[in-house]
Structure formats: structure tokens, C-alpha cells
Design brief:
Elements lengths: L1 E5 L2 E5 L1 H12 L3 H24 L6 E5 L2 E5 L2 H5 L1 H27 L7 H16 L7 H14 L1 H29 L4 H19 L1 H19 L4 E7 L4 H4 L8 E7 L5 E6 H11 L13
Parallel strand pairs: 2-3, 5-6
Antiparallel strand pairs: 1-2, 3-4, 6-7
Amino acid sequence: MRLFRLWDVTIYVNPFFLAVLGLFLAAGVLLQGLAAFLVVLLHELAHLAAARRRGMGPGEVELLPFGGVARLGGELALSPADELRVALAGPACNLVLTAAALVFKSHGVWHAGLGPFFVRLNLMLAGFNLLPAFPLDGGRIYRAFLANRVGLKKATYRAAGLGQAIGVLTGLLGVAGLVLGTGGLDMAVVGCFLFYAATREKGMAAYHYVRHLARKKSEIARTGLLPVRLLACVESLPVGEVVKPFLPNRFQVVFLLNESCGVSGCLGEGEIIEGLFKFGPHLPVGRLLPRL
């Protein structure tokens, strides 16, 4: 559900988040539910502020039960260092809010019921979001760490896979808590949604990867400089396989080898990506070499 627009960014509230608010209402603690809404919103605004400081233009933000997802476009994936900084901004905001609440408490400004809940909520949100499970902030940090080593697509699959596993574990712990009477329904709901969100992000990995490849040429035009990474492959390898190990923040130059492992030519990343979009992923990369 669309909520409002801020800094040309559309803010959405996911139905699962509304379900959690409904649970607070049913339990007679709506004030705590509204505090949770505020904390999650501030968490996401911290991401937006960090992205804006790096000249990025996020398209939309979706508020989730455990934080939110800021869809910040291809520029974050292209720069793992920026993705790391933007991801850390959310948990850092929660820690600042916790510190501010404790300062107010030391000056006598404190609500006996809401104050401890506010502090616990911020600490739990920061800690949970730092788990290495996509699309949590920790998962984005994990993906940024992996992207320069295994490529964006594989890094996204691994981080989203962890998200699915942690979602299942969280859901099972929530169900066990309900059965044993030691927990509420909220943990099971968060686990289910985390699994859903990770599965959705995993399904979009290929799309984000192709979008990332398409943006690389404009990034080079903007900065004028990228480090070079040399690769070698046989001429018969399909173009779709050639681009899989391409890394962010690197311009790949590929040497093509014939049957006797001699160098038959070389192609720049731009030529290979253009061939991918023009001829599809199954074309042998050797067919892209200019013919005399």
C-alpha cells in the first residue's frame, strides 16, 4: 500500500507490516505498534539519507515487519563499498535512537511502559537486520563482500539463500514458542515474511544482474576510469556463460582461445554485453570477433 512520497521516493507499507500492527491492536498495545512503525520508518529514512549523500536516486522503499527494503537501483550493486555504507546506516540509526532514549531517561523523560519497549525494539531491529541474510541489511553487507569475489548474481543467490534459511528457522522458532507458550505469533509472521522476501529477491537476481551489466557502460562514461580484470575463455563458450564471472567496479577484458589454446583475439566487456543483448546468451563468444 502506498503511504507517501519523500525526496521523490515512494514509501510503501507491506501488508505483512500492517498485519503486525493489527496484532499490536488486538493485544491492546497500539501505542507500542505505532512506536514500531516510527522506528522502522526512521530506519529506512537513514538508508535514504545515506544513499542521497552518495548521489543515488532510490526509486521506492517498502516497510517490512523487520525493517524494510530500499530499492536503490543498479548504482548500489555496481559499487559494493556504497552498498555497504548504505546498509549500515539503518542499524546505526537504531543504535543512535537507543542512545537518545537512554539520555532522555537520565534526564527524567521516560515512559515506564513505552520506554523499555522502544529501547528493546531498536536493539532487536539493529541486531536482526545485521544477520547475513538478504534482503536484510546484513545480507546486503554480505552480498557486497562477495560481489567483488564471485560476481553480483552468485553473491545475490548466496545471500538470498541464507535469507530463506534464516526465515525458515525464525518461523519454526516462532511456532515452537507458540506451542510451548514462551512466544507470540509475531516471530512466526516475521519468519514467514523473511522467507517470502528472500525468495522474491532471489527470483529477481538475474534481472538485477542484466540491469547491472547494462549500466556498466554508462558508469565508465561517468567516471572515465575503472580497473581492468583479464579473463580467458575458449571461443565456443556461450556469451551467457562468459558474463557470469564479471565483477562490479571492474572492466573485464576477455582473451579468446582457439582449440590449440592460442589467442585468437580479445573482446572488451562492452562488446560482449552488446553481443549478449543483440544475439542472446547462447551465441558462442568467438562469433563476436571481427571477421577479416
